Amino acid sequence: MPKVRPYSFTERAAVDEPQADVVDVNDLSSYKILVIENVAEMRTTMGMMLGQFGATQVEYAHRSGEALGQLRRYSYDIILCAFDLGTGFDGLYLFEEARRHGLLKASCVFIVLTAERQSTKVIGAAELAPDAIILKPFTGETLYTRILRALRKKHRFKPIDDACIAHDFLRAIQLCDRAASEGGEDALEFVRMKVHLMLRVGDWKGTRDLARELLGTVDFPWAKMALGKALYQLKEYDEAQHIFRQVIAEHELIMDAYDGLAKTQAAKHEVEAAKQTLQDACRRSPYVVGRMRELGEVAVIAGDLPLAEQTLAETVRLARFSFWPQISDYAALGEVQLQRGDVGAARKTADSIRKDFRTSNDRVLAEVLESNVALKLGDKVKARSILENALHSAAQGIEPPSSTLGLALAQTCLSHNRVTEAEELTRAVLKNRHDDPKLAALVTRLYKTQGREDEALRLIEATAADIVTLNNEAVALAQAGNLKAAAERFLAAGKEMPNNLQMLLNTVNALLALVNQEGWHATYMQHAGDLLSRINTLDPTSGRGLQLAEIYRKTKRRYGMQ
């Protein structure tokens, strides 16, 4: 029986020849199409145009939020999106959000439809790379011709789609290599897709080297962006910052460059510079949730509370509209509102939490906010009573409190001088994200506001040391040849820290090593599969998670289980 080779970015096994797909791109009846247009008459007209050329699977959306919801549920082959969606959220924003969250397959054709007066803005931002931009008004023949041109170009991406859908990103990269080596007018698109996938699996060094090689020949903005992102992940902040500045100077509408620059500035503790960069980006493109969130967080660190409240409130609004609300946004907003003494606004935020997180344990954060409001108003008895209820409710949850809720409870406990409970809550949060510098900084700021910064540092160091010790014990067992004991040690630790990404990754690695050495074990493989699903939920972009998923698939194939 062949031994499973570890996932390697450099030693790639031969890839099977993909099955040739016989598809008539001229026949639109075989494609699932989404039309996004806020004007009802235009939706009707486009439906009739598409129907004339055989389209039968046409669906419609009239708002960005509705469209994103449909993209989360279904996989479309063709998307026709108006630039002006009538809500301030334009078609390029929608395209960027869909790409950011992995809602578009590689072969999906995305076409932006725009009036001539808006075309300069759209084309200027063409680094976002929709497959075509069609100026209104247009005829059915024009629409059909541009769709066919894009479909023919994208058809070769279908095998890559299939590999990505199966989360077999190594195969997808190999297919990109093969297609690029065959040449043709779209060879460069396959190289670009390869770079995108290398970033997706966290091959930072490989991305850096390939991007530098490409840039030695031609000045591609997307290759510069990939180089900057890889350098940032490799903590080569000075060079990354230089690259992002260069992209902005040459292409001021590539908004991703502003995000990258701000991250490098924040990593170098250049808080005011990061704030300025994000403000500039938000002025140019104000409807991206992640960017607005980053600005809010940086404004809090910089002590700019008016800006923090404004941007965090906008983040909450945008995230709700875009189907990606995060409880941390509400927590940060409520805290800023209380710091500014606006208890009325904090109460409204609590009401929003109850409405937007009805089925989540995070709704307990509303009670925490209410307790802090009562304390702010001087009603200590009421504040304590509400806190007791919040602690009880959080303890009744199926899973431990999220990091946001746990720290909010810890902060409120500190306000009531309930130090032991605060420590327990903080330790629980740190256990699940012990190697996250942003969380460590958040814990430090939280304790500092209570005059307890030294206690925060002690907790952070002690928790990290405990996890390192536990990990070393399991590794020592593995090195001594006792893989089963190592795997069991990791599984037991996982019950105490179910959201610790590093521990989950180590556990899956131990389980797969055990099965590949000692033979098939259905229970261990079930554990590995469940943990990989959890890893994907916690961090869909985890390069090591994707690598382990590849080993998991190879292991199942090795034993004839797939």
Automatic annotation (TrEMBL):
Keywords of this entry: DNA-binding, Phosphoprotein, Transcription, Transcription regulation, Two-component regulatory system
Residue intervals of the Response regulatory domain: 32-151
Stored SUPFAM superfamilies: CheY-like (SSF52172), TPR-like (SSF48452)
InterPro entries to which the protein is assigned, alphabetical: CheY-like_superfamily, Sig_transdc_resp-reg_receiver, TPR-like_helical_dom_sf, WalR-like
Superkingdom of this protein's organism: Bacteria
One Pfam family in the UniProt entry: TPR_16
PROSITE patterns reported in the protein's UniProt record: RESPONSE_REGULATORY
Name recorded for this polypeptide: Tetratricopeptide repeat protein
